[in-house]
Amino acid sequence: MEVVGVEAGWPRSRPVAQRRVLSQDLIVDTALELLGKGSLDTVSMRRVAHELGTGPASLYAHVSNKEELHELMLDRLLGRLPRPEPDPGSWTEQIVEMARAQLKMLTSYPGIARVGLETIVPAGPNALAYGEAVLAVLRAGGLPDRVAVLAFDTLSLWCAAFAFELGAAKTGETGPDEIAARGKEIGAYMAARPTQFPNMLGLGHILSEATPEERFEFGLDVFLAGLVGAFQPRRNSM
Amino acid sequence: MEVVGVEAGWPRSRPVAQRRVLSQDLIVDTALELLGKGSLDTVSMRRVAHELGTGPASLYAHVSNKEELHELMLDRLLGRLPRPEPDPGSWTEQIVEMARAQLKMLTSYPGIARVGLETIVPAGPNALAYGEAVLAVLRAGGLPDRVAVLAFDTLSLWCAAFAFELGAAKTGETGPDEIAARGKEIGAYMAARPTQFPNMLGLGHILSEATPEERFEFGLDVFLAGLVGAFQPRRNSM
DNA sequence: CGGCATAACGAACACCGTTCGCGAAGGAGA
DNA sequence: TCTCCTTCGCGAACGGTGTTCGTTATGCCG
């Protein structure tokens, strides 16, 4: 005996919309989700659209192009960064903490650092607010205005660059095995020419043994030391 | 009276080759030429092949893939950088000059900086030789070994990052007019919210007025000042 | 209800990197 | 010189990309 399903729908005051409703926020959210799981290359318009159950052309009613999508994504993420209240007594520690938070965010979304590097003038509300926060901390340290601004510039670039490199290592074509193999090849190449590589042969291992955090913080610490040594007003307590 | 052309060819000891002969050097040269005139995006396998009067598939007998082509290009360029004889008395000046030369090279070929950032382990002969040269200068300054190696790391990244940003500004989608327009929008946005942007509003112009060279050298100088202040042995002459 | 504006969408365009299979070319050996 | 083998050069094709154009569907307003 066959049972035929009964498709009786309840009467509705309004027919259900047949089209999917999109929004810029939804698109950015979806793209960020994809980015968190993959890389910038996996965030194609087609993939984002597919995740949303539609086609890529539908996205263009909400974002002008892929580049704008990237910038929206970056701004969203910048909005998540902590913005401390500036403290003149511990401004360098604050800068270090902010840089760490930035690096962590940038590396959690592989490829977003590249967007940061490629975005000539970050103009989103969060980017501006975050820039204001960094600048406020730098100025709290008593640095001359021009120095504070250029330091902000340098620190931003340092974080983005470092994250870019880490991101490339994480998502690029060169896996850990190949990196190790390359290291061996390089070692053998140089060992066969010891007079050409007196420094690299003895010290090359230092770099491969350093952790990303060590490398990042070295650059940061030395830069901040230079800032303090050259530009920060003297304090009687020191 | 019709004159029929006579196609009498001279006898040859060997028939003329009908195929174009390619080589890795030729492909790299061609790609670099395209890069010097455009950007990394314009250096497609199809374009390189077209310049060589063939099809993209022909390139794969000489380069494994596009990534390898990129690395070969980078190594070629690194081979053009000057490698000074280390001088303990002026090592910081030497580092600055090397950084300037690197930046100049990287910005002459828009996009190659990105290759530098994306190449996890630069393994070409020129990359190794150049690294050796930088490291030798840093060590000539009397820096501890680990510091010299990490400084080399930092300086490389700084140059590549800065060049990347300059390259993006030069070849990206955001032209000078749009950059200026954005600056205006940002200014207006912040001016409408003065209590939110007390620092940016007064100082934002400093950044837009600074030249790329000023920005680059600021980061470099401060970093070197930090290196010298923290790690270089004291000299009686100072 | 009809008109209008806008969002959603499919088809198509022009590009991309790469692989596969075939033919051409060159070198080595008999 | 001829034959065999290897490698290079190449076209076709695959699976992908961002974007535009024209059409349809939807919602809002008068």
TrEMBL record, chains A, B:
Which SUPFAM superfamilies does the protein's record reference?
Homeodomain-like, Tetracyclin repressor-like, C-terminal domain
Residues annotated to bind DNA: 44-63
* InterPro entries the UniProt entry points to: Homeodomain-like_sf (IPR009057), HTH-type_TetR-like_transc_reg (IPR050109), HTH_TetR (IPR001647), Repressor_TetR_C (IPR004111), Tet_transcr_reg_TetR-rel_C_sf (IPR036271)
| Gene3D superfamilies listed in its UniProt record | Tetracycline Repressor, domain 2
Which terms are listed as keywords in the entry?
DNA-binding, Transcription, Transcription regulation
Q: Which residues form the HTH tetR-type domain?
A: 21-81
Write out the GO biological process terms: negative regulation of DNA-templated transcription
Q: Name one GO molecular function term.
A: transcription cis-regulatory region binding
> What protein is this chain from?
AcrR family transcriptional regulator
